[in-house]
Amino acid sequence: MDENKDEYILRLKVKMDELNKDLDKLTEEAAQAEGELKDEYQQQMLELRKKLKELESKLSNVRDKDESGWEDLKQGMEKSWSAWKKSFSKAKEEFERAYREGPKK
To answer: In this structure, are residues 15 and 40 in contact, taking their beta carbons and an 8 Å threshold?
Structure first.
């Protein structure tokens, strides 16, 4: 069964809320880093937040689109969503590795 526009928007909104919480947690962890590593993490967090805002804007566009044209926007949204998740996962892995290994000397 195909997902209708409202179901899709709701599903994606729930995912965005969850990832926003994860991003908040990661931002808190990044704030505990020191020196250049802290600056690098903060910059990554800014970039991720910027991309998340772009996703939220695209979701708003999907919400405003009539039923006949929303499938095209949905496909674009899915590509953007996938790219954002990949960026977030990479940042999270880097943070976790850095916390395990400790500061570089």
So the answer is: no
**How far from chain centre, in Å, is Cα 52?**
5
Q: Among 52, 73, 49, which residue's Cα sits nearest to residue 61?
A: 73
Residue-wise pLDDT for 55-83, tens only, equals 888 788 777 777 666 677 778 888 888 88
Residues 11 and 59 sit within 8 Å (Cβ to Cβ): no
Q: At 54, list the tokens.
A: 């772009």
User: Which of residues 75 and 103 earns the better pLDDT score?
Assistant: 75
C-alpha triplet 89, 37, 35: angle, nearest 5°: 155
pLDDT of residue 104: 56
> In the structure encoding, which two tokens stand for residue 49, read together?
């937040």
Q: How many CB atoms lie within 10 A of CB 11?
A: 11
